[in-house]
Amino acid sequence: MKRITVLGCGLVGSAIVHDLSSNAEIRVTAVDARHDAIGRIRQKENVEFIQAQLGEEQNLAEVVKEADLVVNALPGFMGYSTLKSLIRLRKNVVDISFMPENFLELDEFAREQEVTVVADMGVAPGMSHMLAARGVSMLDKATEVLIYVGGLPRKREWPFEYKAVFSPADVLEEYTRPARLRRNGKIMEMKALSERELLHFEPLGTLEAFNSDGLRSLLQTLDVPNMAEKTLRYKGHAELMEIFRECGFFSQQPILINGQTIKPLELTSHLLFERWRLNPGEVDYTIMRIQVKGIKDSQPTLISYDLVDEYDPKEGIHSMARTTGFAATAVADLILKGSLTHWGVLPPEWLGQKKEYVDQILKYLSNRNVNYHLSIQTLQ
Questions:
Q1: Closest Cα to residue 64, out of 108, 30, 23?
Q2: 3-state secondary structure of 30
Q3: Cβ-based neighbour number of residue 62 at 10 Å
Q4: What superfamily in CATH does domain 127-310 come from?
Q5: CATH number of the domain at 2-123+320-370, please?
Q6: By the number of CB atoms within 10 A of the CB, which of 109, 199, 214, 322 ranks highest?
Q7: What are the beta bridge partners of residue 199?
Q8: Backbone angles phi, psi at 209, to 5 degrees
């Protein structure tokens, strides 16, 4: 029996535990610092829950000591240090902490420790990067990569028309951090929420896309002259968030009010937490479109991958948790089966350059009713 330890049991982590534990040949250890997280974990014979503070390497070493593989679903601020410790402990890892640091800096260390790490392996980043690389590899020459992605509730409630499976602080970072992109071969920064455009997606209708900082490792690994990622929201949300940002509600600079020091971002996150929380049974969508343009057989060609996924009422798992978590478990499956044995820290686009990995991952997801649709179009 294989043993997997899942670190972090939020909405995404609990979806990962649910999927892995559906295989009776896998023993899952779910770890979280919060006792209430156990409520998200369905009781099964092959699942054990441990409450532990994972900021100390001694505690981390104890909960992963028997693991054949670890899934790191901890918050981003803990991601890099946790991953480094897991590599030191010689554990294979699938990481969806989406750390702000450059995880590729740990590649040489992972090679020395003879372990396999796939980082940023969610839906976006993750599947977005893998399928972008797959599209590039299908062309003779790629000239542009565009990624559109967003998670949205079916029910649009004023004023935000938005709900999230992630913490508001993580989401708000998308609205403040400059968006890195590549234009005409040069890496440049644009203001978050900038260059808004309208696109149509069934069954949601017209959505608004704006620049966000989601390319991450693609800026180092894909040699394509034009690349950008844009976040999708219902029309009007971006303007509202821009107003909040320009008024200082997202600032991390402490201010003094009536003798109390407070960071505006912390207050804003606190106030938005309940408003943006996806409630049990609330239907959400994950929408993604990856477009790769270039030349194939001397013809201008557009390769697209499209995803429109919806909350699973049978399993009670939100769409963003499914699409993020199951991408991670698909790669965990590759490692456990011995199909992926390359040592080092691998970004998702490394997998995308190998058709056999892409095919296996897409099949794994399709078996869970997460379906990406490929189209190839010759442009006039």
A1: 30
A2: strand
A3: 13
A4: Dihydrodipicolinate Reductase; domain 2 (3.30.360.10)
A5: 3.40.50.720
A6: 322
A7: 207
A8: -115, 140
Domains of the chain: which residue ranges? 2-123+320-370, 127-310
Cα distance between residue 83 and residue 103, in whole Å: 9
Strand-pair partners of 229: 147, 212
Structure tokens at 30: 């779910």
Give 203-234 as a DSSP string.
TTEEEEEEEES--TTHHHH---SEEEEEEEEE
HSE-up (13 A, CA, CB side) for residue 334:
28
pLDDT per residue, tens digit, the chain (380 aa), is: 899 999 999 889 999 999 999 999 999 999 998 887 777 787 788 999 999 988 888 899 999 999 999 999 998 889 999 999 999 999 999 999 999 999 999 999 999 999 999 999 999 999 999 999 999 999 999 999 999 999 999 999 999 999 987 777 778 888 999 999 999 999 999 999 999 999 999 999 999 999 999 999 999 999 999 999 999 999 999 999 999 999 999 999 999 999 999 999 999 999 998 899 888 899 999 999 999 999 999 999 999 999 999 999 999 999 999 999 999 999 999 999 999 999 999 999 999 999 999 999 999 999 999 999 999 999 98
Is 143 within 8 Å of 292 (Cβ atoms)?
Answer: no
The angle formed by the CA atoms of residues 166, 167 and 169, to the nearest 5 degrees, is 130
How many residues belong to the chain?
Answer: 380
Over its C-alpha atoms, the chain yields an Rg (Å, rounded) of 20
